């Protein structure tokens, strides 16, 4: 049964209800936004989710949200009844055909979510929650809000450019109107895309498949939301934010960069080093400390950090090309490895996925670190030895990298990542893609060339210089005056 899982104070406060999609890349910024809103407003915040995600959130709130009135609410959920493996309550390691099932299953939470809102209202002496802040993948919460008379705001955990391009592609499917390789987005004529820059699920969408139908159900409600919150900042994405404001005719607030530490503090490592949020459990804590010690032994800006976020994998052949390319570049690296796309669901990483003898050679010649599954990403990015990030361009990774002045080699794989990589390369000037177009096989030589370009050559210095400027702009966006009041462009950060 539904139940509030944290102790609650019962004196009246305004109440906000938040509901992230069940993926690390969404839950992390939602939690951080909840903390900022609770701190800034003194309102009570309830975060709703499925039982497993609530259980995972509980220690994070206990350790990093102390003193804030953040409550957790479980919504009943049975993965098995939606044809999902038991415990598949978030996208961790789920392949795409199951992620869409999880998304569709989320729509069945509607009556439970409505019951939760009614109960909060009852407990608050008949006062409705002030507003619902829910994920862009949960357009259906708009209907619940409408029925109860509660305004709903969509939180786009991606950037403004990524959100606009992603929505435009789903709504217009412009690539299906032409045989040409390049096409223009009808509502963003300044954006020309190539077919190779389409997320595979959009490229394959037929107009009657589950992804297409799901996204259209959500977007058609999202455009009616009371407003949108974007995890970005004006200095980075002013024109895309303006485009969203004009096209939706509703308020669009830039609140970022929202990160799991305060950008305003002088040393991110100090504020996050003890957070179990980043050092997930003792085993990982041990390997995290080893990883930081290893970074201490490297020269400034020489280490390339390689990671593809919380849910993406690359193919076996790409993994081998990447390994050989890294090795021949002779550039120190930290690589967070996951089983390749071809591996069965929930398999452990095995040395066989890498070229023969690779791990041994890396250890013997002290070329770098290979970390299985999860690394303390923010600590790595904030370390002075880190000079580049080979990333899938998930938006959290992008903001974390830029907030530390680290340039990116883009290797987008899905969703908003292609748009993120494109805008960062073409407009912001902090990224260069691994191999644009992804035509043919990836060769180790391509990897070697890109790595050397970003880590050793003049082009890399220019990218690093620009990334340092963006870091300064990010600091300005979330700056506070001496009384702790916000004075930057971002709406609630600090
Ligand atoms: C997803 C989508 O893929 C992405 O396109 C969208 O913009 C956000 O949601 P994800 O793929 O997980 O996100 O990537 P990302 O947005 O980069 O978030 C990953 C988070 O996990 C980051 O906060 C990162 O610091 C953290 N992480 C990931 C680690 O701390 N350690 C790891 O080893 C991997």
UniProtKB/TrEMBL annotation:
InterPro entries: Glyco_transf_N (IPR058980), UDP_glucos_trans (IPR002213), UDP_glycos_trans_CS (IPR035595). Residues 16-260 form the Glycosyltransferase N-terminal domain. Gene3D superfamilies: Glycogen Phosphorylase B (3.40.50.2000). Keywords: Glycosyltransferase, Transferase. Pfam families: Glyco_transf_N, UDPGT. The keyword Glycosyltransferase applies. GO terms for molecular function: UDP-glucosyltransferase activity. Its EC number is 2.4.1.-. The keyword Transferase applies. This is Glycosyltransferase. It comes from Picea sitchensis.
């Amino acid at each position: 049964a539904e139940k509030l899982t944290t102790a609650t104070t019962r004196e009246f406060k305004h109440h906000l209800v938040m509901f992230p999609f069940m993926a690390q890349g969404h839950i992390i910024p939602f939690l951080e936004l909840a903390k900022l809103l609770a701190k800034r407003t003194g309102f009570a915040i309830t975060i709703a989710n499925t039982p497993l995600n609530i259980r995972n959130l509980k220690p994070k709130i206990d350790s990093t949200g102390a003193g804030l009135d953040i409550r957790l609410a479980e919504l009943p959920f049975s993965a098995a009844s939606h044809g999902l493996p038991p415990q598949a309550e978030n996208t961790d390691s789920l392949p795409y055909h199951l992620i869409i099932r999880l998304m569709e299953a989320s729509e069945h939470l509607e009556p439970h979510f409505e019951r939760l809102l009614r109960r909060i209202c009852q407990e608050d002496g008949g006062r409705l929650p002030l507003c619902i802040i829910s994920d862009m993948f949960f357009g259906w919460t708009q209907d619940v809000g409408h029925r109860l008379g509660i305004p709903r705001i969509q939180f786009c955990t991606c950037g403004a450019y990524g959100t606009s391009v992603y929505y435009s592609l789903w709504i217009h499917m412009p690539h299906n109107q032409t045989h040409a390789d390049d096409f223009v987005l009808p509502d963003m004529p300044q954006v020309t895309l190539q077919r190779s820059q389409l997320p595979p699920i959009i490229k394959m969408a037929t107009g009657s498949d589950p992804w297409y139908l799901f996204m259209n159900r959500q977007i058609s409600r999202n455009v009616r939301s009371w407003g949108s919150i974007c995890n970005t900042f004006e200095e980075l994405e002013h024109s895309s934010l303006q485009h969203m404001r004009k096209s939706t005719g509703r308020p669009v607030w830039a609140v970022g960069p929202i990160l799991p530490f305060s950008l305003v503090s002088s040393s991110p490592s100090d504020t996050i080093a003890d957070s179990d949020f980043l050092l997930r459990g003792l085993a990982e804590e041990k390997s995290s400390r080893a990883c930081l010690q290893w970074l201490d032994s490297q020269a400034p800006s020489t280490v390339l950090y390689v990671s593809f976020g919380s849910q993406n994998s690359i193919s076996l052949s790409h993994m081998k090309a990447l390994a050989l390319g890294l090795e021949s570049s002779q550039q120190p690296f930290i690589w967070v490895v996951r089983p390749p796309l071809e591996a069965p669901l929930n398999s452990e990483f095995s040395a066989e996925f890498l070229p023969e003898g690779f791990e041994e050679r890396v250890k013997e010649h002290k070329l770098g670190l290979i970390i299985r599954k999860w690394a303390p990403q923010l600590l790595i990015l904030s370390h002075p030895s880190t000079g580049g990030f080979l990333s899938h361009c998930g938006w959290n990774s992008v903001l974390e990298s830029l907030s530390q002045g680290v340039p990116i080699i883009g290797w987008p794989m899905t969703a908003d990542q292609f748009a993120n990589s494109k805008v960062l390369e073409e407009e912001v000037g902090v990224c260069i893609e691994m191999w644009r177009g992804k035509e043919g096989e990836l060769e180790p030589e391509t990897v070697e060339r890109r790595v050397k370009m970003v880590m050793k050559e003049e082009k890399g210095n220019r990218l690093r210089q620009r990334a340092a400027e963006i870091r300064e702009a990010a600091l300005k966006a979330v700056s506070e005056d001496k009384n702790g009041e916000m004075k930057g462009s971002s709406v609630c950060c600090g």
